[in-house]
Amino acid sequence: MARKGKDLISQLPDDILVHILSMVRYKEAVRTTVVSRRWKHLHTKLPAVSFTMSVLGLQGSPLSTQSKQRVESMARTLRRRCAGPDHDTVQRLRLSYRKDVPMECRYADEFIALAAASSLVLFLNCPKNLRNNDAGPWSLHLPAATACLSMESCWYSVRPPHVHGPGASALKSLTFKDSFMVLHPGYLQDTAFPSLEELHISGCTLSGSIEITSATMPRLKHLRIVDVSIISLGTEGAITVLADELATLRVSCHDGGKPDPPSSHEMHCVETPFRASFTEYSCFRLRAPKLRVFEWRCCYAKEVRVDAVGRLSDVVIELFAGRLPRCYNEAKRFLQMEDCDKLMKHILQGIMPGRWKYVQRNFIECDELRLRCEITEYDM
After folding, report:
1. Which of 177, 216, 254, 283 is 20 to 30 Å from 28 by CA-CA measure?
2. Domain locations along the chain
3. Which segments constitute the F-box domain (predicted)?
4. Distance from first CA to last CA of the chain, Å, rounded?
């Protein structure tokens, strides 16, 4: 922005200019500092750094080769900044790199250690034609300063890592965000997160049953499970939540879990060995004696078992009937309103024992293909 021949943006103080640079990727930030004397060296002070080691080609095309020169330039910058006498750190680090390129993995580990960012976001990439569709096990060493970790992947072959280091004990928030990761049975029990308070699982696939317990996450307070699919229709995928400190639980599955109206035009799902066309958990078990908020939207389970919950302040349950999503070679199936009513009854009898008839009379809304119950603390 210029007025009367003056560059007003460049007159802003350094801390504001640095935040402006943080809104773009590292490559663009460096280019900006090169062409302007006022912005010179500001890229070395960014509170949030976003760096992509490899750039994806068009969908379905091979991944582009890594740019070693750019990666080494980034390494030198971080070494000067974080390993220098001032020991400057990065508040938020976002790295996008390939799991099948050792050089990128090696530099990613170094960047994570140097930056010691309080918030770390990893976008993991790999070819889609890996043998056996598995990139293999790997580990992630977290610095003690890292409090929030978010991971995304571009394909199912990238496993979630074994998290270790001092950051595993200090981590407060863990997110698998809109990823293609496959969660194998036992993964969430293999590593203890003694300080973890928030767990968000989104878009992942279950190859079997998973357990989220106080044994490994004793301080877990907020749990969100969104669009978590089963790997195949025949897979027994159960979710067990046994969390002594859990206060909020939000479960939803609109992607692959919401039936279509029978009268609508049917679109077949794309057949894949990694996700079932329709998500139905074999069992959902819950024990959360301090639970206050319970949300269950468009999720289906053959069995819901509630061992204990706290005095709830907010409850939302929403179920839909209709034609189930399917692949072209699968038989047509429907979910009836009677099935929704049965599931609604089982959930409410578990979380609000003794009040089913009162809730049924006053709080359940029934449309042609939808069943909904919403109760607030003022209704309790």
Report:
1. 177
2. 47-171, 176-380
3. 6-42
4. 55
